Amino acid sequence: MAGTALAGCGGISSSGSGSAASGEEKKGDASKGKVYYLNFKPEQDEAWQNLAKEYTKAKGVEVTVKTAAEGTYEQTLTSEMNKDNAPTLFQVNGPVGLAKWGEFCDDLTNSEIAKNLTKEDFALKEDGKIKGIAYVIETYGIIYNKTLLQKYCDSDYATVKKIDDINSFDKLKTVAEEIQKNKEALGVEGAFTSAGMDSSSDWRFKTHLANLPIYFEYKDDNVSDKKELKGTYLDNYKNIFDLYINNSTCKPTELASKTGENAETEFKDGKAVFFQNGTWEYDAISKSLKDDEMGMLPIYIGAGDEATQGLCTGTENYWCVNTNASDDDKAATLEFINWCVSSEEGTKAMAEKMNFTIPFNAAKESKNALVKIDTELTKAGKTPVSWNFTTMPSEEWKNGVGAALTQYAAGTGDWDAVKKAFVDNWKTEKAKATE
């Protein structure tokens, strides 16, 4: 690993480097420090625990990894930061997260890990200083069971005869509705997995699906953020959500209690053809489907140039080092994360065990079949849909949209309530964020 890791105004360097950077005071002895990582991703918990043990064995530095339950990271981080033994390493989801947690984020401008980024675009900045480092680039869309979808295409009742012809919302709608109508003949319980709206699953719709109408509105106005939304594409948002909930493995009224695990199991067991999710699901579904049995479609909502639309690719995962940690713990933390993205052991684990595509010079190619689909689509000239939910004003905004969607699906609320939660609450929460 690199001999020196620098961060903070005065800089932090490991004891093993021999000398501090020119003109900077040497601070922190990594060999005397410890690392406490509050991990955002439950699906990678085991891999992080194993990598932490491997690092401790190799370097003699204690690394503790605690993983927040799905959908509870902000609450867990708030709780942990109030403790004496607070995380030395945590994450924010982008500019909005940085606005909330920036006072706890050390300056990483001169750190080795910042220098190892493939592009400066992956550095999260505030006032010209790097406060966060993106550690994984991910992709999401509509994952599909290729065997089942091909069986549909080969059937007498199929209007769409080739998977490659599913290249618009209208085509997707035709396919989904024909699968739903003929689900017994196809041997499934629904076209889509359940659009669960409990906390382990609702992020797929109040955040990831909600990205699409935001993306197209930003694109129209040539901006990357807005204090107020017009809601131009909320009817398109309604159309895709309706398609999900009306062509599913369960009734819309049951979605409030359906979980992320329910949807994952339905897909793995072949009970549904389509599953909105991302590259992080590869490890779970690869236990049931071979690489050549899975595919991924863009989330078409009937907007923009659908013929050139790609998958949703980006990041909301930025590592931040706790500025209130001791100098020794900061040094140890910086050495650990730089080792993760530069050493043979670290990069191999991130590529093969976590199935991550990492934005660092020493990155190994991921074996994740879903990542490869994104690469192939981009090479074919498809335009990736950027992740804009990092500009969503607050968790309260997301929760408001999620609650409105849940009530809409249950029939106890209407779409106007979803629009109000989306547009009116956006304005209110953005105003709060700038107070």
Report a brief summary of the structure:
With 435 residues, this protein is α/β, with parallel strands linked by helices. It has helices at residues 45-59, 73-81, 95-101, 112-115, 146-153, 169-181, 183-186, 203-209, 211-221, 234-246, 260-268, 282-285, 327-342, 344-353, 369-379, 395-410, 415-433, and strands at 35-39, 63-67, 89-92, 123-126, 129-134, 138-145, 190-192, 272-278, 294-297, 309-314, 318-321, 383-386. 49% of the residues are buried.
Describe the structure.
The structure is a single chain. The chain has 435 residues and is of the alpha/beta class. The protein has two domains: 15-137 and 315-361, 3-Layer(aba) Sandwich (D-Maltodextrin-Binding Protein, domain 2), CATH 3.40.190; 139-312 and 371-433, Periplasmic binding protein-like II (D-Maltodextrin-Binding Protein, domain 2, 3-Layer(aba) Sandwich). It is built from 17 helices and twelve strands. Strands 6, 7, 8, 9, 10 and 12 form a six-stranded mixed β-sheet that branches. Strands 3-11-5-4 form a four-stranded antiparallel β-sheet. A two-stranded parallel sheet has the order 1-2. A hairpin with a 2-residue loop joins strand 4 and strand 5 (129-134). Helix 8 crosses helix 16 (395-410). The longest helix is centred in the C-terminal third of the chain and has 19 residues, at 415-433. It is globular, with a radius of gyration of 22 Å. The two termini are 43 Å apart.
